[in-house]
Amino acid sequence: MSLDFYSIEAKWRKAWYDARINESEPRPGKKKFFMIFAYPGVTGYMTVGHMRGYSVSDAIVRYKKMTGHEVLFPVGTHATGNGAISFARKIERGEQYTIESLKANGVSEEQISKMTDPMEVIKFFNQVYVNEYWKRFGFLSDWRRFTCTIWPDYSRFIEWQMKKLMAAGLLIQRPYYAPACVEHGPVAIDPSETDISKGGNAETLEYSLLKFEFEDGRKLVAATLRPETVFGLTNFWVNPEVEYVDVQVGGEIWVMSRPASDKLKFQKDGIVVKGSADGASLMGKRCKAPFTGKMIPIFPSALCDPNVGSGLVMSVPSDAPVDWIGLVELRRDKAALERFGITDEMIEGASPIPIIDTPGWGPLPAVEITEKMGIDSLSDPRLEDATKEVYKTGFHTGTMNSACGEFAGQHVEQAKDSIRTAMLESGQADLFYDLSEEVLCRCGNKVVVKRIPDQWFIDYANPGLTARSKEHALTMKILPTEYHENIQSVLEWYKERACVRLGNWLGTRFPFDKRWIIEAIADSTLYPAYYVVSKYVNDGSLKPDGMTEEFFDYVFLGKGDGASVSKATGVPLVVLDRVKSDFEYWYPLDINLGGKEHMTVHFPVFLMNHVAVLRPQHWPRGIMVNWYITSAAGKISKSKGGAQPIPATAKRFGVDAMRLFYAHVASLFVDVAWEDEKVDGYKDRLERIWSLVNELKEAPEDAPSAVDRWLDARMESRLGQLHESMEDYDLRSYTNTVYFEIPQDLRWYGRRGGRNRATMLRALETWVPLMAPVTPHFAEELWQELGKRPFVSVEQIRPADITEKVRLEEAKERLVGRLVEDISEIAKVTEMKPKKVFVMTSPRWKMEVRRMALEQTGKADASALIKAAMPKVPADARRDVPGYVKDLLSDVSKASAADRDNMSLDFDEAATIADAKPFLSSEFGCDFDVVPADDPNRTDPKGKARFARPGRPAVYME
RNA sequence: GCGAGGGUAGCCAAGCCCGGUCAAAGGCGACAGACUCAAGAUCUGUUCUCGCAGGAGUCCCCCGGUUCAAAUCCGGGCCCUCGCACCA
């Protein structure tokens, strides 16, 4: 039979939303549970991978709802930044891929043409996310609370947050260097290239600009990423073919390439370009190195690119392969030597000077690596690899050697900072920022690094804030547990973070300076609180105008009195107090679930902003991280998986099969590849369960037997296991039990001859609700089949009651199961088909001795136990005692606490097995004879009885 | 480089925090049997090696250590994936 999942899903989600079981209202006195997943950025269609975290969230929320909690599970979207602008521009430019993908999703031409407007893009995808993804997946989310970060009311909230941060002294200003178009101002450099037409992968590099004094007092400035190598300077490189300029900077004249001076203008005030200087005129002369004061010769090099750094380069041939090869080539280039009057002695004088001890390298790594790789020309492309290799190991593992004065013995990383700082402070160096590759604005102009003198930052380095956040994080439920530990160091590492920016962005204006727009991370950290408010905005009872600082102070911080706040804001007192009490009911947030990319970005600031702004009782309680569903596509084809649109995939496999896939395929904390076959497997699984349930519910009335008692007990202990799994929101373990182990229990029940209708129904009534969190539509359909109303989704899953009786029933069945295994094993090994099986249980005294062994405390003492046991053992069995005790103690020592509990259960094994005789006979197709060991008239073929142990009766078959 | 995660039987994947219940859950695949005219579906069993009595041997990336005992703890190594800040 094939179930029509598509219509089942449509039916139930409509029924839920019509009945509004997804809506959340405070129920004072009732436990609450408030969960969100990190809202997605509005950047286009999502893939099936994104639904993983979302589906897991809904399952957790549904479980909580079914275990006595009033739940709040709101959703929203994040549209701050340039995602929507970028998308709109792609439409505007007529980018085929984007337009085709919209068409493939059934979007009309008319709608597409509207989407050249970013706001339309946002409107469109907001609707897609809610209707085609979240509602389609049956989420019990309170849709009335939907919010989007660029809505005016949301902005009021963000303004308030910034004011609170300011009041707490956490907003600070300092200079910052950011990429900007010379014409259009700030641009974003990112691979999607919204603002730019070239260079999406460029990085901003921070160069140290070292000043080398020339004979006439001018400073030749060399840009370097490794200022600590000043100790190894041997010469200076100048490109004789390049035009250099004299630049007035303060009271100094700097020499650099013209492009460098153009860039510098954006980074320093009061720069005046005085005139050009000929590179060739410097050649063969000397300049004075900063810091060491050493006089070094100036040599020609074609490698000085006027567009990189300052166009002048200092030469450290010991550690820079390029510099070393430069010298090698120069020595060969007799024409150049002659032209510039450079003598062999001068080059000799520029021999490499060892400055860094690097494990695994000799004193001159640059020389060593070029020789090893056989590089002897500047045109060799491998020179770049050589540079990287030397740089990497030297920088991270090296220490400065004795040539480095007071820095000798320091790690290179550390020395770099110290030396740079020292040179900056003494005026021998400056800083210069440049991009790692050419970046062009959409207008075609160059993008440069521009100094922003008054950039605002949130001071996440604030020691008090950091300390309180770290301390609070320890009390939180953070999963996986590795992250619980690790977030401590993330919080420690977190420094100031720019929180506003200029340029072409969507978002909230900075309340203290409207030129700035609040940046995308800064406006998405405290927002779970806002879902309490958004509902009242969406239903019209709150207007953005009334949402002032006082308003939020009152509802979130309990400041002021209602009457005067109401008066000042124009918000009716009832509404005001309603929002406030809602907030106090729902907050704090119980879980924030987000993808692993948030671990070093969103989660720490989410936590710190709560700590900075809200009162301690409202700080978040939990964080959960999900890893990704990756696409297996790469290997075969794009259409293979992962990239397929969500609605079509949902139609093909069914939403519940997908939800089960997400929950069960792997732990949430590892990446897993999407595979159609796997999802199909889960669909099959649901269909199998469907037929199993339908078969079972038709069970006839029958007198209950031992196996009925067992099934009741089994369901009880499964229930216990499930609640335990959910303590850590371990949905994988949960689904494994519900969808795989319970069906096995039920089949075993049938195999064991169970056919009691009442027992069956009891089991089903326990089981079906357990499926509701993960496969809710499917569970509803089953619930209806069982004649239940209205929704399984609002049923309660009761706590488990694991009594002594439950454990006893399970132990009895374990005995039977174990016996079946043993008999099969013997039959297999001996290759016999038994005609008759004798089962001989262990004598009382073995039970007694086991009890004594369990009671033994401390180190197992075999001889003491044997002595103590002897009096209880019948004379003719005493010779068996030592061997038995030896085995017993080894079992006991290996046993866990639970095992020991089980071992201590005492029941009549012979009676239990006798009870199962009809089952055993039909399993093995032969007669069974159960022989209690203590029966004086027992038969004991081949003397096997003495091998019986509690839980492992002796078996003889013929 | 820094930070994080990972490497488990044919494949996917639990277990590792809290060592012994682990030859290691579950799924897929494969093989055998049942049902069936047949196929499919479903159900049952098997699926590291050896074993004519329920047992033994070897095993969880590699090497070493701790321990009565290691997939699990510690040290070292090899390999893979991801994040690193103004991109959400």
How does the SSE layout of this entry go?
Blueprint: H1 5-19, E1 32-37, H2 51-65, E2 70-72, E3 76-77, H3 83-92, H4 96-104, H5 109-114, H6 118-135, E4 147-148, H7 152-167, E5 171-181, E6 185-186, E7 196-198, E8 204-214, E9 219-224, E10 235-238, E11 243-249, E12 252-257, H8 258-264, E13 271-278, E14 286-288, E15 295-300, E16 313-315, H9 321-332, H10 334-340, H11 344-349, E17 356-357, H12 365-373, H13 383-397, E18 399-400, H14 412-425, E19 429-435, E20 440-441, E21 447-458, H15 463-475, E22 477-479, H16 481-493, E23 497-498, E24 500-501, E25 517-518, H17 530-538, H18 549-557, H19 562-569, H20 573-586, E26 591-595, H21 602-613, E27 622-626, E28 629-631, H22 646-653, H23 655-664, E29 672-674, H24 676-696, H25 706-727, H26 731-751, H27 757-771, H28 776-785, H29 804-830, E30 836-840, H30 844-855, H31 862-869, H32 881-894, H33 897-903, H34 909-915, H35 917-924, E31 927-931, E32 954-957
Parallel strand pairs: 1-2, 1-26, 3-4, 9-12, 10-15, 22-27, 26-27, 28-29, 30-31
Antiparallel strand pairs: 5-6, 5-21, 7-20, 8-9, 8-14, 8-19, 10-16, 11-12, 11-13, 14-15, 17-18, 21-23, 24-25, 30-32
The protein binds one RNA strand of 88 nucleotides through helix 13, helix 16, strand 23, strand 24 and helix 24.
